Amino acid sequence: MAVATVNLRAVTSWVGIARIFAIVLSCLAFSLVASTGEYKGAYGTWCMFTWCLCFAVTLIVLLLELLELYPKLPISWDDFTSAFSMLAALMVFTTSVVYPSTYIGSPCRSHCAEKAVATTASCLCFLAYTVEVGLTRAKPGDISSFLSTVPGLLKVFEVYVACLIFSLLDNFSSVPGLQWCVAVYSICFIITLLIIIFTISRCLAYIPCPLEKMLVGYSALALVMYITATVLWPYYNFKNKTRPNPCNSDCAWNKHLGVTFLTIFNLIAYLVDLVYSTRMVFIRTPS
Predict the structure, then answer these.
(1) Of 43, 135, 188, 244, whose CB has the highest number of CB atoms within 10 Å?
(2) Which residue ranges traverse the bilayer (predicted)?
């Protein structure tokens, strides 16, 4: 019968301390917001989901490392923790912007102190996850944990940005150009997500082709596809169209503008991904 041992380094190392701060701060954020009772609606649900998810998963990660139980899991632990810390940083960052802009009015009318402290805790929680990402990021030339490398972290970023794009998509009509853009977002999202899942589940080794070159080729193809989307999406959505007045957060024009900026962000991400992936392949190739 296997006996769990205690590894105090899991809570005394800099990574462990960053995780403890993330647990405490995310718990503080969702507890304060829950005490106000003012988190109804889609944005409030998203914020509470983010804080609760980050609290629960980070606590589980910390306990598994403290008790040294993670080697028994059939996954690549370093890839999983690197991907989750990156995802958590992105989610908490989004929440730290969405919550105050939605639920703290000007002037604030109720539970102002709780909302302000919750927002501050959320921002500090984002910094804690950012520190964890920085501490666990692979050193140049080290690819033992792919998702801790720059291309791996960028793939998590690309998937998350694609999710934000999907959340802003509404009726994009039957214009072929806009349908192509949605196809670009969907295809790149699915393939990148599969790469992350296969990496964590240790399935990439079973692919019967040069993996590194395949990833470089995919990054190049995704970059080209996103270039077309960056041109076509604003062209068809803003050509001969002015911003309506008034135009609130549910206004289609604002959503289309948000998709435009997110498309540009992902275009840059795929460009950097291609550059770093190419460098990794070059470094690993024997001279």
Answers:
(1) 188
(2) 12-34, 46-64, 84-104, 177-203, 215-236, 256-276
